[in-house]
Amino acid sequence: MWMLLTALAAEPPTCPPADELVGAERWLRAASLDLRGVIPTLEEYQQISSPDELPDALIEEWLDSEEFIERAVRQHRTRLWNRFDNTIFIATRNRMSLVSNSYLAVRNRNTTYRGSNLTCGDFPATDSDGDGEWDLNADGQEGWILVHPYWEPDPNTQVAVCAFDGNDAEFSPTGNDCSTPAGASDPGCGCGPQLNYCVDNSVHTDIRDGFGAAMDHRIAEVLRSQRPYTDLFTEDRIYLNGPLAHFYRDLSQVPSGVRFNIPPFDLDLVPDLPYSEKDTWVAVPTHPAHAGIFTDPAFLVRFMTNRARTNRFYEDFLCQPLVAPANGIDLDAPNTLDLANRAGCSYCHALMEPTGVYWGRFTESGGGFLDPDTYPAFDSLCYQCSEDSSPCPTYCSQRYIVDPNSDELDPYVGQLQALQFRPDSEHDRIDQGPGALVQTHIATGRISQCLTEKTSSWLLGRELTDADDPIRDAFDAELLASGWSYRQLVKSIITSETYRRVR
């Protein structure tokens, strides 16, 4: 044993020389692992008929498989970061928790209902006078009632809920809509019919996961149907499952960590999907300014500012990271509020600020769309209230430039915030949307080249270098010749001599 260990230590395992073509069996094994995540079966190995070719029919079968779709979607996930483990989609004022393993309560409404930080009592609620008002104990507590919540698919399933929280009114006696922030602070409102306006922890998880899954579904649909890859950048639709349909219909108006109170589509189009339909997806049309993955709610929420959206687009879809040069940044530029010209900032922001205007109609810190009919590029009321130093409407302070704290901002008062410091020549970008930005770089070839580079790096197991330009160019040419077929790009790479050398 000692001699064997010594021999192994003396001759560590090494990769084959880069110019050596691996045999067909090893080549097939590598392709199977990359495309499906499993090794080939004996029957699949037996389909090899030439030492220098992969079985074409077998490769086509693998590319048609759901295993390949899943692995391709996972690769895109590394670029889009569409997971939301730490994102709050539902305000705490609408979140229910289990109290003493007995009943559900919305803790943040305690003072609204009972005047102090008390939940209800652990006993069945009663209305002994029949006047529609719950009996209260000496501490001012009502009991709980049984309700069938929307998240339970079995209509016979009921949960105990504090009686005030279980109020099923859609509007309070004072006229407040119980699904809005006003309703959340109105003692005449509860969680609505079937608790529609509230969530428990499992529902919040379903909604959070739904946004990420919707992006995965969008990508999978394009790949599965073998549509041009560019459809990912041009679709004017979003995808909803049961939890997301419920979110937009009943929960999107309540402010939280991210905001959806300005929906990206007509809420009348929300499909009538049961909450339990987590794996059923329905496409809902959006405004034509939408641009596929770059205006998908998951993208807008993951990258919450227009600068972050621009940075992700350049880094992962143009392969041009916005980073300072190796020799440092220029500190002699003017010190100004305009980052595109500020000392130490202009190197990146001279490109980032003008590009961010393309996302100017998509809300920051949320996933909404500022329709031009409601939110013109210039709002005279927002301008006037700022000039008069009078209180401005909330929408002005949230969406427009008002109350400038510097003379530099005076020329932009009354304009949408995305137009701050932007010249008139760039104002049309806000209505063109990210789709126009994408079309520009499709035309220049930079998006296809970056896609080729990212896909090649995944399958070849290493980053491409300048020395690989001929390889990258050859794969890119095949992608374009195929009509932007992602499937064909992958096939070109795994059947190439380059792949055979490195695998």
Describe the structure.
By secondary structure, this protein is mainly α. Among the domains are: about 15-80, no CATH class; about 90-200, no CATH class; about 200-300, no CATH class. It has 21 helices and six strands. The longest helix has 24 residues, at about 200-225.
Overall pLDDT: 92
Structural class per helix/strand content? mainly alpha
Fraction of helical residues: 25-40%
Shape: flat
Low-confidence stretches: 1-8
Total number of helices: 21
Q: Largest sheet, order of strands side by side?
A: 1-2
Number of strands: 6
N- to C-terminal separation? Answer: 32 Å
Largest sheet: 2 strands, antiparallel
Task: Note the beta-strand portion.
Answer: under 5%
User: What is the CA-atom radius of gyration, in angstroms?
Assistant: 29 Å
* Secondary-structure element pattern, one letter each: HHHHHEEHEEHHHEHEHHHHHHHHHHH
Q: How are the elements arranged and paired?
A:
Blueprint: H1 2-10, H2 24-36, H3 42-45, H4 56-63, H5 66-80, E1 97-99, E2 103-105, H6 110-114, E3 144-147, E4 159-162, H7 181-184, H8 201-224, H9 231-234, E5 237-240, H10 242-251, E6 282-285, H11 297-302, H12 306-317, H13 346-356, H14 380-388, H15 394-399, H16 429-432, H17 434-444, H18 446-460, H19 469-481, H20 486-494, H21 497-502
Antiparallel strand pairs: 1-2, 3-4, 5-6
Helix pairs in contact: 5-8, 12-13, 18-19, 18-20, 19-20
